[in-house]
Each structure stands twice: as structure tokens, then as C-alpha cells.
Amino acid sequence: MRILLVNGNTSDEVTETLAGVARDAAGPDTEITWATGAFGVRLIGHRAEASLAEHAVLERIAEHADTVDGVLIGVSGDTALRAARAMVDVPVVGMTEAAMLMACMLGGRFGLITFSTPSTPLYRELVESHGLMARLAGMRTIDVTFAQAFGERDSMTAPILEAADALIGEDGAETLIVVGAAGAGLAANLQPRVPVPLLDGITCGVLLVEALIRLGAPKPTRGSYALPPGNLVKGLSAVLTDRLKAHDS
Amino acid sequence: MRILLVNGNTSDEVTETLAGVARDAAGPDTEITWATGAFGVRLIGHRAEASLAEHAVLERIAEHADTVDGVLIGVSGDTALRAARAMVDVPVVGMTEAAMLMACMLGGRFGLITFSTPSTPLYRELVESHGLMARLAGMRTIDVTFAQAFGERDSMTAPILEAADALIGEDGAETLIVVGAAGAGLAANLQPRVPVPLLDGITCGVLLVEALIRLGAPKPTRGSYALPPGNLVKGLSAVLTDRLKAHDS
Amino acid sequence: MRILLVNGNTSDEVTETLAGVARDAAGPDTEITWATGAFGVRLIGHRAEASLAEHAVLERIAEHADTVDGVLIGVSGDTALRAARAMVDVPVVGMTEAAMLMACMLGGRFGLITFSTPSTPLYRELVESHGLMARLAGMRTIDVTFAQAFGERDSMTAPILEAADALIGEDGAETLIVVGAAGAGLAANLQPRVPVPLLDGITCGVLLVEALIRLGAPKPTRGSYALPPGNLVKGLSAVLTDRLKAHDS
Amino acid sequence: MRILLVNGNTSDEVTETLAGVARDAAGPDTEITWATGAFGVRLIGHRAEASLAEHAVLERIAEHADTVDGVLIGVSGDTALRAARAMVDVPVVGMTEAAMLMACMLGGRFGLITFSTPSTPLYRELVESHGLMARLAGMRTIDVTFAQAFGERDSMTAPILEAADALIGEDGAETLIVVGAAGAGLAANLQPRVPVPLLDGITCGVLLVEALIRLGAPKPTRGSYALPPGNLVKGLSAVLTDRLKAHDS
Amino acid sequence: MRILLVNGNTSDEVTETLAGVARDAAGPDTEITWATGAFGVRLIGHRAEASLAEHAVLERIAEHADTVDGVLIGVSGDTALRAARAMVDVPVVGMTEAAMLMACMLGGRFGLITFSTPSTPLYRELVESHGLMARLAGMRTIDVTFAQAFGERDSMTAPILEAADALIGEDGAETLIVVGAAGAGLAANLQPRVPVPLLDGITCGVLLVEALIRLGAPKPTRGSYALPPGNLVKGLSAVLTDRLKAHDS
Amino acid sequence: MRILLVNGNTSDEVTETLAGVARDAAGPDTEITWATGAFGVRLIGHRAEASLAEHAVLERIAEHADTVDGVLIGVSGDTALRAARAMVDVPVVGMTEAAMLMACMLGGRFGLITFSTPSTPLYRELVESHGLMARLAGMRTIDVTFAQAFGERDSMTAPILEAADALIGEDGAETLIVVGAAGAGLAANLQPRVPVPLLDGITCGVLLVEALIRLGAPKPTRGSYALPPGNLVKGLSAVLTDRLKAHDS
Lengths: 249, 249, 249, 249, 249, 249
What we know:
The structure is a homohexamer. By secondary structure, chain A is an alpha/beta fold.
């Protein structure tokens, strides 16, 4: 099976980091292909940047969806998740959604470790949007620079272990999620030093997209996840236009 | 004061309908200016269409925000509301948000009248995203065509009155909101035949943007609603790039 | 337009402080009139004091409602809000309700700064009663004396700034509300030293009552906010009796 | 032990109905004494009437609390419950609170049968205020006149049985509460025809006040349920003044 | 009346401690009888131990239910509460359920003091399962050994008082519950040093079982609390088999 | 990999039905092994029957856990799920949990189709216990006999399709779950006639246990999902005793 990993950021080096983690997680028969947002910002942090990335993510998915069996959205905000899920007829999973649902199956409430104070409220809203507030034990934030997150990862070890300890000991978390691109790769390395499961969204996401592909549930033909009904379209790329326009127009 | 009304749909005729209602609601010293999405679909219905409109709405707001005192998002899904609110330093309100908060001040729980079965789950998610589920009495949907919604509005009278009656009598709604562009204009006309307040988002939105402008609260400099911190930007329009790019880059 | 500001406390000096803030917030065509509770306590703190003030507030509103266009309840507990809203046919808003809804439109979750530990649970219950718990980031309490709150306000500056910092930094508040009579006046003064909007209920309340008056929604004739249906009344003041008694009795 | 039953309505005949039910429920060593509101309306239905009754209920409780061991508030809205509980040092229970908590111990979710459409939203708010929404299966309303409720009770049998059947069969209720004065007396009579427990607030209330008296928990000296701290009081009856005024003033 | 106290642990000495507290709480006409789990562990701490105790508790209740008027489950997790309540036709109450509902009637939100960090999440789940999260102020845990909990109780005094202070001062608790067997006996002794009610589940449970017995609500014949409909049974004790098997099989 | 399917009912024919569905869902390298409860009832319906099955399920898991890589609990109530998850060091998933989490990834809110009115409240409680109430659109119940559920399945087709239509059209469900053993097998057959995904817990469960096995998260050593700490054990089977007893006792 073929899984598309979409990075809504514009940075190829981030995509490659994620793709490496995805390949490690994938089954022997799974091929990971990937795409980076064509426009937007290097690493989404601000609400406006996340909002604009919805377009970039959808465009990439529209380009590739016909040649893959499933899609993993490799942006920590699960950017454009519901839109993509409704637009194409293969399974689509968000990386943070994947980590949270995997955490649910490991038991108890989960804690999130995030990497930017100003965007932390967005993760709370993300948990709410998935209807999972009852499973959230707490969130802890470590402010890191882009350089730290993708170059000098060792500098993040101590603060992550500290955050883990606080989430477990003070907030009652029984599983931990290292959110975002920073978590991909780091989680596996730090797991031996943490007394509860330490999850990253890319690993969880690949496994769950594979599970959904094998499940083979049909595309809904009713409800808000049915394909676009066809509309008058203006100013979008050819692939998006093709997916949204009225079929007889 | 000057208020920008942004329509995330690409249809100028819808924008003009909304602008007319907005002008009627505005105070004597308020000027209403408006903008239509440069790309996207004629009337947003599907999740993918709503998601893409975030970009179109933000682009229009980025163009005009320096010359207005406040922004009203004239799309029923409050498209790009939080992103816009964080991106610019004038108040931004969503039309459905406005109607719901006004309904809160009229008392009790509100009912929503929507106009497309497939997109009704999106309004439930919208209420949830505003944290207002405890104030939602129910939703009723009337499926209408574009022609009906913007041309033959009389055909909508009977089903709206029926929906109103069900929301009040069965669901316990004490205020009603006619959602979306369809509601703008219709609510005022039908109010005399409905025993509880019948609100539309454009009228409520203009009044609340005016209130926020007069409040004059400062732009936050901490948290997720502070201005974008500056990033590496790629492939966006000049106005958006200017708002998101690192100031010294 | 004419707005009645009702203080459910018996202290005229508190009413005058509130009225001053209200006049500053009001539009050029708005006249603020005010009334102080005829019976009760100087400054409501205890549950029993708040409960008794419902009668005092309703009596004052019954006296003035025919000669004003809207009512702002100037008691931090939004005392008798729903009862007054249902009893008269002009809009009625509570000061804390107003601040919370305005905070919703500024984005994110809000924090409350309150001024008496024993009454802090009442504010939590108030937020719950408005269905806004999902928007509450946290509450911080500063215990002040009546003398401090209305005479030596400078002594409150440092603890309020400290509370603000904790609400933003620890609880994730993106807007702050200085609750009650103490907040009226103080908020504007301290705003320059706080990095997020700092709201007071009187300013917000005047703006929102004005918005509701201009909205002109009709009085409901069904539901729990319709006028009193008429009853056998005993032992109430003439104005209250007149509003509650059966019209043909 | 001595229990005060307070009726916040002004109608002695309602009080006597309630007192009869209370005496039947009371233990052999329990004396039931009762008091009717000195002012207000015959039978509370409207929000303003409920709000004013808070004063009347508190006044009656202030008069009697020193000579009883516990108080049962015999108004379906649990009028002034929290205020009274904080004002006096004997246990205070509301009749609907009592029925709901007893229902919790019988298992599952409960259904409410209410008797006036316009006031039904108030019961929903009451359940919310007790934090018991997760235990509410549904509400059904039968509109009855005062004459029916207290004179021709047989006319209520069929609609109550119908409401019971709908609450059990459609809403999943596993216990039922016949709300208010109408429920007192009726519940016991109709129980044989209903397949799940059918509770009334007076019976449940007497039993739970007795349990609280025997528990003998001390009056809190911290928090919002401690006695009033003492205040400047104006225009209240001697008994209320005595309870609220500063002890050394 | 006769009340069965069931201890799902296998330790007779714990049962005896609980029975002593129960006798002190019971009315003059109440006889307390008790039973200890026939199999399982000495003191339930782990999820698996709690789960297995469901069988032990049900078996004991099946043996005694015909000769008692009500049952109090004397295990802090309210082990097998709903199953027992449905299986027999006398009232069944859980000790922690009892303490929480009693706390509701004392007002405000309650705090829990628990005695083992690893099992604290189970108490949070217990509160959720009773639908009482809105009434939970917080939980504090003191890790004690079996020897401390049942032998050297004085060593627990200081940490319990500290936990109480934190729950009141930081979490806003207005009533406290000392959870489990450890709480039985301790609560009464420590009450004089705590400024809010300090409840234990056995005392509360006896009082509430007595109230339910006197209420005399009938056994439901519909819903999930009706008696078992009769099934093919295998490998259970005679008393359990008799309660679950098809009556004509 | 090897997955144990545990049926908490005592009926081998049900186990075999489930095992067949499990084998169909399993990957080529997965071996499905299964176990039937040694004691209890033929098909769990009543609360007491579900409670007793916890012991039976745990015993079977204790016997097999050392020789498998993961466990799927094949009882619709996810019987003993948390206890088993904590007791053993391989992943454990409940069949209804699995279907609900898979439904979450397909989007929107899900509807449950259940097969016995008296036990339907238990499924609502199950959804609550997983913290997924925000994702539940509704439940519909079809009462079937054991013979129908496992012999004459065609008689269930029409009512299931009707229930599906009501859940989609009236309750807004976007995915459906056919609950329990009855769902296993039926879902796949009926899928072509239903316009949204129709899930069964066994198929979903096998896929998610496989995903968890491949994830390889470590057994927690802190919190409520760590292994049992060791206790004094009495009267349990050797395998359970071995897992729960103190290692040095």
C-alpha cells in the first residue's frame, strides 16, 4: 500500500525528517511518499499561518490522492484534516489525532508536550475539536527555536524529561505525546528514560492509516464526509478545481 | 468608523446582499466596505470548500485591515475567524459567532436554522468551537438551492416558520438564528411571524464590531492572538507575505 | 437612548463610581440613569446577601423600566439578570455577562480577577450558569477591604498585575476581566501595564446594552422570557405588583 | 428532631398539601413545622416570581432556623437553597435537589415531569446548577391550571402516565421525578402504575434532611458556605438584619 | 431494619473497622450485618484487583440480600455497585457514592483525599461514572502502607490536614471526603481540626441506605435496573446461579 | 504475531463466530487464538452478568497473556478492559472501544446500533467511560433473541437498515457501529446497503491490536496501568494468583 505524508510547512528538511520516521514505522509492504506545502511558512506557529496551510495541504492532497491508498497529515495541528477526509476517497488521518487515539488505547489520560507557548492554546482547541477533552490530563510547553528543534535536538532532552515528569506526577498523565515535527524521532530516543509510553504522531499515524486502509470502509455517500457535490469554482489550481467543480459544468 | 465585510464565497451578488443588510444595521457614522473572495467557490457548502476559503478570507483581510477599524466575516462558518483575529490589530467578528453571542444576551438557549443537510454537522462543530454547546437548544435544516436562497426567497418562508416552531416547541429554543447569507435579510422580514427573537449574523455582527471598536481594547502582545512573530514566507500574495514575514528578513 | 444602571448594593458611592464609568463608555446619544438598591447590604459578599439583592434589583428595575430603553445590572453576580430580562420588555444585560461575552469576541479563554476568597465559588457558578465554562481559563482572587476597593485603589495595583501575570502565564488566559465594582475604573488605568485586554463589566455592559437596543429584537411571547402571565400577588411594592399581577384581577 | 418546611409561594393551601406529604415521610421522632412566604405570588411560575421568592424564603428561614434542626425548601426551583444553606447553621435541602440525588442512588438517568411549558427551561437550568446534567435523561411537560394541580388531580393521571412512558421508552429514564408541589402526593398514588421509581421532592427531602441532621457535619468556617461575615444592613426585617449585620456594629 | 455491609477485600480486620463505624452511624432500630469477600486480595489497589472484586462482592450480596433491607458496599471504588443494584430488590449504595451525594447537599464542590498514587486515576473515573465531575474540586493523595492505614493511623494526621488545607485553599473544595476504609473512623477524629465538613463513606452510606429503605421505592420492572431476565448459567456459586438463571430452566 | 480473542460469555458458538470474523480481518502473519469464559452466562445482557464476566475474562487473559502479543476483548461491553490492560504487559483493546476509535478517524459523530433495550444504558455508560460522548450522535436498539442473533440473522436486516437510516437522518451520525457479537459478520454483509461506514468491533479490534503490537510502546512502570504491585491473594486460580501476589510472598 502507498501512503502520502503531507507536510503543510514549506520546509523540505522538516518533511524529510518526518518521512524518515514514517518509513521506520511503516509495514514491509507500505511505501511512504511525501509532499511539502507549495506556499506558506517554514514552520507553522501562528494562527494565520495554520489557517493558510489548509489550502496548501489540500492542494497537495488533491494532486496525489488518486495514486495513494491513504494520507497522513504531517502537521501537528492536523491541518485541513476534516476537509481532506471529505474531499478524497482514501482514508486521511492527522498526526496528532493519531497519537491521541493511540494513547486512548494505552489507557488513562494523556499529556501533551508542545514547543511554543503562543501556539499552545491551539493544541487545546485541537483536543476539543476531536472531542477528547475528557482524556487530556494536561499540557506542558518547552519553547524551542527552529534550530534547536531540527538541529540541536540534544538540548531538548532535559526539558522534555522534566515536562514528562510534571505531566505524570502533577497532572496524572498515563501516556505522553511529543507534539509535532519535533516529536517525530525524539520520542523513540527518549522513551527509555520515561516510565510511561511516549508517542509521536508520525509513527502512530502511519500505523493507523495502514489499519484504515486494511479496514476498507467505503466512502460515505451521505453526510458531511461525502465527496464535494460540485460547485462553481474560481481561481484554484487545476487539481483542486477538478475535485470541487460541478461534474457537468 | 469603517467596517470591512468579507465574503469568503466568490459570488459578488451574495456579498451585495450581505452589504445591504450590513448598511441597514450600521450606525450613522459607520461606513461599510466589502470584499469578495478572489478564489474558491460560489457558495461554500462542503468541508473542503470551507477550508480553502480560509486563505481567500485572510488575503482579503490582509489587503484592507490597515484602512478599516474592524472586520466582520460574512461567511456562516466564521471562516478564518481566529486566524484573522490574530493576524490584524483591529477587532474581527464572525457572523454566526455574533448571532450566537447576541442570542446569549436575549436569554436561554438558541436554535439554529440551517440550509443544507450535508453541511449541518459543520455548524454543530462551530458551536462547539465557540464553547457554546450549553446554549444550543437544537438545529433544524431546510435544504434549499442557490436559486431559492438568493432569488425565490418566498419559497423559504413556510419551511422556516415550521423549523422555528419545532425549535421552540420541541427543542426549547428561546431565540432563533437564521444561519448564513440566507438569513441576512430574511430574518427581519419573518420576525413578525415568529414569537421569539429571530437573528441574522450580519445585523448582529455589525452591531458587535461597532461595540468592539468603541471598546478599544489593545492588541494582545502575549498569547495566541498576538501578531505573527515573523517567519520565512513562500508563495503568498504580497499583502499576506508582508504580514507574516520576519520583519528583518 | 436611555440606559438604567442598577446597583443591587445599598451604597450610593458605589453606584456613583459605576455611573461614572458607564458615562465614559456610553455613546454621545446615550443617557445613563442609575438606581441603588433600597434594601440589602452595603457591598454583597455572602450568598444570602446576593440572594436578597434579587428582590431589590427587580424592584428598582420595575420602577424605571418604562422610562428607559435598556438596563445594565451593575452587580458582579449579574443579580436577578434572568428574572429582570423576563419581567420587562427592554434589553437587560449583566455586567459580568457583558465582560465575558466581549472577552469571547477578543478570542481564546478568559481569566477572572476577583476580590474576595469566600465569594469566589459564586463566580465559578456564574460562569457555569452562562454556559461559558469552556471559555474560562482560571480565576485568581485578591482579598481587599471595602476601604481598599473604593478608597485606596493604588494598593490594589501590584496584586492585580500579579494575578494577571499568573492567569496569562499559568492558566493560559488570553483576555482578563476585573470583576465587579472594583474593576470599574481600575481596568482602564491598569490596561497599559497588561499584555492582553483587561475588561471591566460596566464598560462592556454599556456597549452591549446599546447594541441590543439598536438590534431591536422583539419581546418574546413564548418561552421563559415572555412577560409574567399574571398571578395573585401579595405584599410586594406597587410597581412589582403591577408587573406580576393578573391583568384582570 | 424538628424540620422546617418552607413554601416560597404565598398560598397556605399549597403549604398544607406539602406538609401532609412531609409528615407521612417523616420518622416517628421528627416534627414537621412549616411556613408560607409572607409576600410574593400564589404559585411561582415566572422567572421574576422565582427571583422575588428568594427573599421571602430567606426571611422565613431566618425566623425559624434557631428552633429547628434542619430545613426543607418546599419550592420546586429549590429557591434560595444555596443562600439559606450558607446563612444558617442547620442543614438545608431543596425538594428537587433531594429527588434528584435520591434518583441517583436508585440508578441510571432520571426524567423530570414538569407542569408548565414556560417554566420548563428553569428546571433544566436547575439540573445544570446542581451539576447533574449527566444524569438527566429528559423532561416532559404537562400544562395544568392551578385548579387542576390542587383540586382536580385525577385529570392529571393520564398525561402523567403518558409522560412517564415517553421518558422511559424514548429518553431512557430509569427513575422519574414528578416535580413540584403537584408531585407531592401524586407520586405515591401513581407509583403502582409506573414500572420505575416515581419520586416526589417532599418525601425525598424529608428523608435526606433527617439523614443530614443525623450526620451532624459541622458548619463550615471557611468558604462560601460559612456564616455571613457581618455587613452594613439596610431595610431588611429584624431577623434577616440580625443574621447579616456586622456583630459589632 | 437490617443493612448488609459488604467488604470486597478479603481482610476481616478491615471489615470489622468498617462495621464499627457503620454501627456508630446507624439508627437505633438498624442492625448492621457484614460480609467479607471470599476471594481476592487483602486491600484492593490495582485495577485488576478491583475488577475481580466485582465477583466477590456480588456473591456475598447474593447470599445475604434476601435477609436484609438494604446493602452498603464498603469498598472505596463502589465495586459492583450498579450490578448489585440491578441484581437484588433492596436498595444498594456505594460508600464513595454516598459520601459524594452527601457532600452535594452540604454545598459547593468537594475534594477527595485518597491514599495511593497508582489508584488515584480510578477515583477520578469513579466520579465521572457517577456524573459528578462538575462537583469535584480536586483530589490529593497521601501514600500510606497497609500498616499505617490500619495500625498507625496517627502518622496520617499531619498529611491529611495538609491535604485538606490544599484542597480548600487551592482547589476551592467546600467539603472533603476521606476516601475508603482509611477514611472510616479517621474523618470523625480529624473533623475538629478541619474548617469544612470531612466525610467518610461508611457513615454517609449507612444514613443514605436507611433513607432509601424508608423511601420504599419499588424495584423497577423496566430498564437496566430490572431483575436479571434469566439466562443459561455456568460455573457460578449456587446463590448467584439462582439469581441469574432462567426461572423455568 | 499472535492475538488472543477473549469472549466473556460462556458460549463457544459465539466465540467461534467472533473468531471467524477476527481471522478474516487479521493480517497474513497474524494468528488468532481464542478463549471462552469458564463461568458466567451464555450471552451477557444484565448488569450483574457483565460484572461477573470481569473475573472470567481476566482469568482467561491471565492464562494466555504470556504466549500472545496482544489481546482483543470480544465482549461488547469491553468487559474488564482497563483491568486487563493494567494486569498484563501486552496491548489489550476492547471491541467496542476499537469500533468507536476507528469511527473517530472516519470523521464526525458515530451512531450505535444495539440489540437489547434493557442493556442499552450500559452502552451509553461505556461511551462515557471512554470519554467519547462528544462523538456520539445517538443509539438505536433492536430487540432480538439469541436465536435471531446467532441463527436467523436475515430477520435482523430490515430493522438494522431502518435503525441506520434513523441514526443518519435524524441523529446526524456519519459512521455506524453494529454493537457486539451480533455485529461481527453482519456489518460487512450489510455495508453495501448503508451510505456511511458500518463498523463491527471485532474487525476494528484486530486491526488496532495489530497496530498497537507494531507500535511497541513499553509497559508503564508508573501510574494505574503499571503491573500489580503484589498483594496477599486468596481463593483465586493459580494463574491469577501468580499475577497478583506479592513476588516475595
